[in-house]
């Protein structure tokens, strides 16, 4: 038997990670010109308060705790706020100050930047919004008009994690690889530059960072086959300053740096450069201004399977590594690899926190990370030397991390070269991109943890398919595979777990946890009010006591939350803000039914304060049953082919087994009219402007028809299932599986 339902669930989910390459000359405009119209008072204020944001001001962010000046508030990315007006004694009085409906139906992952009462945030498709942070008044909105067809290259939804603000500019990385600087007062484009080779399937979803007048940006796309790098651009002009590649290129050509020469010695026997090699830098960065070191997290290999990528063995530097870079010239200073020779999509792109800790009686300057591989790492950030690592979630691929070498000790359970293996964690990791936080008050790190496994199987005959998923894993149904039973599905769904974990990084042990009803819960904020804030997949936003984990407050926002909150203060009042919108890799590709509280299709920005006078409207929900599909005759061979092609090309957006867990259309609800247009949609590309590209280069008409008959068969099977007692017997698992929830206008 190949993949249990939840592992098939996760096969699509687990096609995640990202990368980049190439550039066009920037188009530049002045921040202000004499010809521009009179600015509003808010626009003028926005220009003035952002004009002085620079490296010095961000370095000294603790001197202005009311602002949230950088992605993690400070360069150390601790996501801790010294504000304490809202605290354990009064947090129950939190209520809505204002909210803004984004009209976006895809995942929202941004951490807003707030400067002296002006908020900047992003939405899906790389849009940018600017608000009055006290009232929600919209200052401006910007849409980079990313071609919707580019969404096919986004492994993990068309998300964006936020902007950088620096010297009057708001800088955003667009999904299609552009880096764009906007006027902070008007949203007008000041310059833009293409950071990638547009012939390759790169994307940008991460938030840029700005260090010493340089904008630093990476990219994604490793699953599809690209070579990872980060690039620094002049914040004033968009001119490229330097580029650092994370994996070596063609060894027959000169290497770009000594770091690449060193790395090439650890790649053996394969032709990784023809696929790209992976190693994309799609999320985490941190900066130590005293050491003048920029820390980046590097992603997985391309393909995932090391037996194909580097059949002669080797560590495959700098995959799954934390790399310290001199930001003045882009040269590598040191590296630490969390998963040598990664074989499981165990990226080290997860959040990096810098903290000074007393360990064994000595103050150590540390970098903290809980990467996908399930071990929590404490590294000396001055030189990359290993301090400690312990498993923070169940781990089966390795027994432990050797304290002498700092290398994980692999087990036979993780080796799938000759037979499939079910491994923990799976490719979603024990922790994904969702930011964790550190509280200097408690000394604890708060991790949005995931507990999921996955079945890996070696692909015996691997063929690189340009522009598409190239994992090197066997998967999908065979003719002799029995279909998963309902009991299999129940067990699989019951094993979809996540929790909020309070972890002591010095003692390397769990202090407390809060169990959640599902995986893929939001990022974390801690404050001096002894509070931890987190949004959840069940559509609620909650506050816990940082020292004990006791739940103190919750509010329904009616959509799953995956982003991390921020907090700020204006005119003596503290606010808590969250960007809420369900999606991301798990939402779009898992097939796990949405929680009953995760109702809304559209996302929203919600801001709270003590005694807030606003309210969120209660959704007016109508339930629509699965429509009867057209009758289409099918042979067993067609159904098998359709199942295989659906899982290969469709499940990463529409969900495995024709079960969508996100806002992307669930094909069970296609109906007669949709099926009548099947060929024009799938092969003709009539919906390419909406993000559904033509698959004519990948599918033959016969394969497209086979997918359609498979969808019809799966729809009929779902209708039959919904007539059984299972949905009522297991409402927590199947309560939203049998109807489509439609929000009526009020």
Strand content: 25-35%
Largest sheet: 5 strands, antiparallel
Query: Regions with pLDDT < 50 over 5+ consecutive residues?
Result: 1-25
Number of strands: 42
What value does the Rg take, in angstroms? 24 Å
Describe this structure in words.
With 746 residues, this protein is an alpha+beta fold. Helices cover 15% and strands 29% of the residues. It has a five-stranded antiparallel beta sheet. The protein has a five-stranded mixed beta sheet with strand order 2-34-35-36-37, with no helix packed on it. Strand 17 and strand 18 form a beta hairpin. The protein is globular.
What's the arrangement of secondary structure elements?
Blueprint: H1 5-13, E1 27-28, H2 41-51, H3 55-59, E2 80-81, E3 94-101, E4 113-115, E5 118-122, E6 128-132, E7 138-142, E8 164-166, E9 169-173, E10 178-183, E11 189-194, E12 209-211, E13 214-217, E14 229-234, E15 240-245, H4 258-264, H5 272-275, E16 277-278, E17 285-288, E18 293-297, E19 301-302, H6 306-309, E20 321-326, E21 331-337, E22 352-359, E23 362-369, E24 375-380, E25 386-391, E26 398-401, E27 408-410, E28 421-423, E29 437-439, E30 444-451, E31 454-456, H7 486-494, E32 497-504, E33 509-516, E34 524-527, E35 531-535, E36 540-545, E37 551-556, E38 566-570, E39 573-580, H8 584-589, E40 604-610, E41 621-625, H9 636-649, H10 651-654, H11 671-676, H12 678-682, H13 701-722, H14 726-729, H15 731-734, E42 739-743
Parallel strand pairs: 2-34
Antiparallel strand pairs: 1-11, 3-40, 4-5, 5-6, 6-7, 8-9, 9-10, 10-11, 12-13, 13-14, 14-15, 16-19, 17-18, 18-20, 20-21, 22-23, 23-24, 24-25, 26-27, 28-31, 29-30, 30-32, 32-33, 34-35, 35-36, 36-37, 38-39, 39-40, 41-42
Helix pairs in contact: 9-13
């Amino acid at each position: 038997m190949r993949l249990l339902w939840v592992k098939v669930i996760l096969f699509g989910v687990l096609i995640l990670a990202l990368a980049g390459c190439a550039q066009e000359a920037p188009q530049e405009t002045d921040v202000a010109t004499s010809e521009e119209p009179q600015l509003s008072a808010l626009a003028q204020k926005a220009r003035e308060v952002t004009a002085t944001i620079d490296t010095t001001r961000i370095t000294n962010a603790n001197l202005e705790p009311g602002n949230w000046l950088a992605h993690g508030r400070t360069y150390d990315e601790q996501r801790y706020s010294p504000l304490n007006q809202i605290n354990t004694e009064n947090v129950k009085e939190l209520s809505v100050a204002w909210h803004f409906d984004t009209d976006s139906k895809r995942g929202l992952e941004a951490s807003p930047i707030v400067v002296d009462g002006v908020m900047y945030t992003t939405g899906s498709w790389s849009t940018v919004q600017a608000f009055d942070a006290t009232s929600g008044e919209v200052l401006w909105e910007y849409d980079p008009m990313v071609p919707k067809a580019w969404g096919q290259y986004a492994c993990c939804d068309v998300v964006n994690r936020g902007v950088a603000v620096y010297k009057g500019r708001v800088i955003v990385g667009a999904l299609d690889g552009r880096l764009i600087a906007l006027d902070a007062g008007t949203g007008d484009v000041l310059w833009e530059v293409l950071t990638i080779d547009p012939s390759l399937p790169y994307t940008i979803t991460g938030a840029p960072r700005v260090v010493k007048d340089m904008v630093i940006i990476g990219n994604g796309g490793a699953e599809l086959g690209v070579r990872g790098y980060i690039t620094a651009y002049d914040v004033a002009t968009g001119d490229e300053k330097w580029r650092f590649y994370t994996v070596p290129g063609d060894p027959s050509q000169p290497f770009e740096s000594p770091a690449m020469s060193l790395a090439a010695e650890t790649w053996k026997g394969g032709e990784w450069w023809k696929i790209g090699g992976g190693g994309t830098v799609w999320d985490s960065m941190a900066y130590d201004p005293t050491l003048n070191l920029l820390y980046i997290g590097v992603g997985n290999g391309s393909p995932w399977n090391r037996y194909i990528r580097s059949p002669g063995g080797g560590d495959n530097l700098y995959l799954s590594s934390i790399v310290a870079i001199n930001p003045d010239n882009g040269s590598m200073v040191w590296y630490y690899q969390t998963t040598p020779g990664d074989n499981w999509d165990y990226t080290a792109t997860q959040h990096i926190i810098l903290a000074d800790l007393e360990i064994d009686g000595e103050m150590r300057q540390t970098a903290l990370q809980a990467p996908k591989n399930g071990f929590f790492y404490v590294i000396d950030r001055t030189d990359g030397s290993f301090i400690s690592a312990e498993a923070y979630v169940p781990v089966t691929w390795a027994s432990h991390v050797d304290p002498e070498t700092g290398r994980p000790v692999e087990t036979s359970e993780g080796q799938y070269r000759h037979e499939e293996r079910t491994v923990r964690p799976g490719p979603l990791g024990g922790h994904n991109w969702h930011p964790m936080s550190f509280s200097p008050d408690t000394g604890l790190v708060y991790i949005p943890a995931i507990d999921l496994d996955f079945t890996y199987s070696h692909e015996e005959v691997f063929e690189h398919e340009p522009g598409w998923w190239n994992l090197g894993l066997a998967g999908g149904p065979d003719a002799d595979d029995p279909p998963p039973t309902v009991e299999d599905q129940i067990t699989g769904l019951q094993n979809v777990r996540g929790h909020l974990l309070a972890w002591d990084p010095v003692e390397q042990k769990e202090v407390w946890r809060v169990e959640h009803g599902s995986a893929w819960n939001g990022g974390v904020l801690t404050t001096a009010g002894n509070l931890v804030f987190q949004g959840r997949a069940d559509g609620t936003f909650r506050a816990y006591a940082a020292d004990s984990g006791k739940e103190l407050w919750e509010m329904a926002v009616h959509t799953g939350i995956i982003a991390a909150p921020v907090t700020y203060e204006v005119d003596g009042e503290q606010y808590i803000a969250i960007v809420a919108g369900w999606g991301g890799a798990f939402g779009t590709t898992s097939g796990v039914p949405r929680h009953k509280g995760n109702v809304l299709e559209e996302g929203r920005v919600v801001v709270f304060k003590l005694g807030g006078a606003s309210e969120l409207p209660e959704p007016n929900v109508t339930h629509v049953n699965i429509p009867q599909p057209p009758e289409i005759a099918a042979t067993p061979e067609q159904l098998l082919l359709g199942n295989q092609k659906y899982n290969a090309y469709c499940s990463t957006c529409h969900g495995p087994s024709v079960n969508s867990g996100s806002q992307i259309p669930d094909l069970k609800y296609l109906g007669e009219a949709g099926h009548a247009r099947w060929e024009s949609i799938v092969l003709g590309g009539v919906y390419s402007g909406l993000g559904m590209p033509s698959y004519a280069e990948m599918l033959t008409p016969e394969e497209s028809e086979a997918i359609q008959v498979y969808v019809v068969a799966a729809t009929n099977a779902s209708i039959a299932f919904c007539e059984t007692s299972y949905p009522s017997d297991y409402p927590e698992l199947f309560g939203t599986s049998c109807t489509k929830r439609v929000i009526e206008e009020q």
